[in-house]
Amino acid sequence: MRLDGRTALITGAASGIGRQAAELFAAEGARVVVADVSEEAGRATVAAIEGAGGGASFAATDVTRSESVAAAVAHAEERYGALHVVFNNAGIFPGDDTDPVETPEDVWDRVVAVNLKGVFLGCKHGIPALLRAGGGAIVNTASFVAVMGAATPQIAYTASKGGVLALTREVAVSYARRGIRANALCPGPVNTPLLEELLADPAARARRLVHVPMGRLAEAHEVARAALFLASDDAAYVNGTTFLVDGGISGAYVTPE
Ligand code: NAI
């Protein structure tokens, strides 16, 4: 069991990658704090974990609010004694986030608040707890769009993920000697509710799939396994990386027919 005796806080654990990670981390022995704005679905994640014999609890959390994230960290420490893993995974991808000319400023602000400030707050409140535990691991979710440009722009989303990448590197370098590793998980397109709206359009789906050498989207559990690796001692010397789980997209020039 890779996370035996550890406590992990996962934001956005009510859905998609976060939910799969919560179930996987619990199956690997972690006690999981399911931190999400969505209470009903978050409690369903907890019920699934408990149904499988694992330990988890729900913390109603809005990652854009400092006191809310601080409360989730306090919940983890009070309930389980210490916090060892922070997976800053919550993110949004609104349809009206397009190019810099068209994207409304309030959409920019909301995307940056969730995707970038949310990760900052997870580090701000999570790092002191990890230090109290004697060290730990941070996994921050960026995206392959943090390292590649797309001519189907989502300018706020892309900028927020670039920020996550840079922020994570700096955390990794700053805290390495105090026992904290930090890595940026960069998934390619994943089959989750986040992309549902976009990929419902067959032309939009095909336009993206043509760039994926493997010819398919990732499944959330495949990304969760990478998060587990980064969160566990299997990755003991992995720090500050741009950890791409993209089916080869970022390595491709021409993809197979
Ligand atoms: P999802 O939409 O299935 O799940 C996101 C979760 O975040 C939901 O449970 C939602 O309630 C929660 N959330 C949203 N705003 C929140 C807030 N303010 N506070 C707390 N929780 C909040 O999305 P998915 O696909 O699982 O995405 C997870 C992460 O992976 C995100 O950061 C996303 O940007 C990133 N990602 C996803 C990709 C994809 O193709 N699905 C590709 C690359 C990165």
Note the total helix count: 8
User: Which CATH first-tier class would you pick?
Assistant: Alpha Beta
Instruction: Name the CATH homologous superfamily.
Output: NAD(P)-binding Rossmann-like Domain
Termini, distance in Å? 41 Å
Structural class: alpha/beta
Mean pLDDT: 97
Order of helices and strands: EHEHEHEHEHEEHHEHE
What is the CATH topology descriptor? Rossmann fold
What fraction strand?
Answer: 15-25%
Helix content: 40-55%
Total number of β-strand segments?
9
Give the names of the bound compounds. Answer: 1,4-dihydronicotinamide adenine dinucleotide
Oligomer: single chain
Weakly predicted, low-confidence segments: none
Largest sheet: 7 strands, parallel
Number of domains: 1
Shape: globular
Question: Could you explain the architecture of this structure?
Answer:
It is a single chain. Helix content is 45%, strand content 17%. It is of the alpha/beta class and 257 residues long. The chain has a single domain, classed as NAD(P)-binding Rossmann-like Domain (Rossmann fold, 3-Layer(aba) Sandwich). A 7-stranded parallel β-sheet has the order 3-2-1-4-5-6-9, with helices on both faces. The model has no long low-confidence stretch (mean pLDDT 97). The site of 1,4-dihydronicotinamide adenine dinucleotide has 30 residues, from α1 and α6.
